[in-house]
Design brief:
7 helices; Nucleotidyltransferase, domain 5; Arc Repressor Mutant, subunit A; alpha/beta; 202 residues; 2 domains
Length: 202
């Protein structure tokens, strides 16, 4: 929060979350929820956060991340139809026992994470030796030489511009006259001319 320019203590954030969770009591019961663990204190003490995915609001914050507390919470809410969760077996078990009517789904973040890990695992199993390059060696060499030619052509045209600007200046033309003839603004041609002079001085 400090990085966002909002110095707020962790306790204040937790109080705010609890207050928000208590304010949703007068709304219709949640049907589609997301459940995940979160850290009260990193690597030390974890809790469970439950979010109404239709309203995008926190429904409750549980003091721990145990099967028993999540199961008890779910059992009190028979209206829950879908539970979005991570791969943690703890919440899968809590949902099976506390809300057997609910369908369990993986949330989008964890689906992408699973996909990334599966790809990474496959790449490490097969290694880079089995990966076919997209371009052939000849195509790569051709692209590199084309890139070099384009760079050389660019340098040559830049040098031609420099030579033209210097020739016009040596003819005694004013800055504004050079700008008119070259269709460059005074600032642009002055910048280019000064670069040319410094480059030629090297």
């Amino acid at each position: 929060m400090k990085q966002l320019g909002m110095p707020v203590s962790d306790d204040t954030i937790l109080r705010h979350l609890k207050r928000m969770a208590s304010q949703v009591d007068n709304e219709p019961p949640a049907r589609i929820i997301g459940i995940d663990d979160w850290s009260w204190r990193k690597s030390w003490r974890y809790g469970t956060i439950i979010v109404d995915l239709e309203r995008h609001s926190v429904v409750d914050v549980l003091d721990d991340r145990s099967v028993e507390s999540a199961k008890a919470w779910l059992r009190e809410r028979p209206t829950i139809e879908v539970v979005s969760r991570d791969r943690c077996g703890l919440y899968a078990q809590a949902t099976r026992e506390g809300a057997p009517q609910a369908r369990q789904v993986a949330d989008r973040f964890h689906l992408v994470q699973n996909l990334r890990e599966a790809i990474k695992e496959q790449m490490s199993v097969y290694g880079h030796a089995h990966v076919r390059p997209i371009l052939s060696e000849d195509a790569i060499a051709s692209a590199r030489s084309q890139q070099r030619r384009a760079g050389l052509s660019h340098r040559q045209s830049r040098q031609e511009i420099c030579d033209t600007l210097q020739a016009l200046r040596q003819q005694g033309l004013t800055y504004s006259e050079i700008a008119r003839r070259t269709t460059l603004s005074v600032a642009t041609w002055w910048r280019r001319l000064s670069k040319c002079i410094s480059r030629n001085a090297m």
